Amino acid sequence: MKIVSSAKISERHQRRLTEKYPMDEFYFFENINDTLHELKGAECLITFGEDLSKGVIQLADNLKWIQVVSAGVDLLPFPIIKQKGIVITNVRGIHAIPMSEYTISAILQLARKTSDIFLNQLNSKWDRSIRVNEVYGATVGIIGLGAIGQAIAAKARAFNMRVVGINSDGRAVTDVDKVYRMSQLKELLSESDYVVVIVPLTAETRKLIGEQELKMMKKTAYLINIARGEIVDERALLNALKNRELAGAVLDVFSQEPLSAAHSFWKLDNCLITPHISGRSPKYMERALEIFENNLDRYLVGNFPLNNLVNLGRMY
Description:
The chain is of the alpha/beta class. The chain folds into 2 domains: about 1-95 and about 280-300, NAD(P)-binding Rossmann-like Domain (Rossmann fold, 3-Layer(aba) Sandwich), CATH 3.40.50.720; about 95-275, NAD(P)-binding Rossmann-like Domain (Rossmann fold), CATH 3.40.50. The protein contains 11 helices and 12 strands. Strands 8-7-6-9-10-11-12 form a 7-stranded parallel sheet, with helices on both faces. A 5-stranded parallel sheet has the order 2-1-3-4-5, covered by helices on one side. Helix 10 links the parallel strand 10 and strand 11. Helix 5 (about 95-110) crosses helix 7. The longest helix has 17 residues, at about 95-110. It starts with a strand and ends in a 16-residue tail after the last helix.
């Protein structure tokens, strides 16, 4: 079986794969352009998913399976993939630990005003008038109760926070005090002190949080987006932050990345910006390849369906 990778994989992990699967041919590259001369005949492609186009898929005349070593698949050329009947798997679930830690650290940073305190330190300023808060008893609203959302809920409960959340059907979820359907978004927004956005980007979730939704939030509440930039109407959020219609926002994702140096988000004192790193971890590729290896074992013996299968109709 010919397997081509356009995802940057360390030599250590490359060696592990080639030693574990000596009967298969692996071709490792660091970008999609370098793979083009090897795509012909490839049965499996490993990718982060952001580099694929219709033309690339057409070049891969024998492609049966795409392993995306990311959770998001919204940038894939789904029409040609559906047409060719290619199976897609992703690595959803591996981000639960780093992204839940990121979220809780952001909440604590907002409550304890650590950014303000650090700025005072840089200016050698002793100021005990900074008004800090507690997260104890505060409500965190999680829009999207998948693996990451559930991990956030568990950590929030450890801090004695009240947890509300949204999933597709309102079914009960461990560590979540109240589960809503998406049609009940207003209820979640109106009662949450921290709103965490962690749903996949689809036609239904694009600009899910817009001007009206932001107005439903408490003026003392914070919005945390660790999903995709396009899920939040950035213009509406910018206006809401400028007008102090909510306390602030933590943004790890944006509609255009990298965020332009001229963007107004940078200039806001109530907006914390991070460069799409909430899912980063030194164990990222190790966890991603565990899923790939498990699927490869299944694929080689015809044990279908594979794990972490992407629904081509729903596109997640």
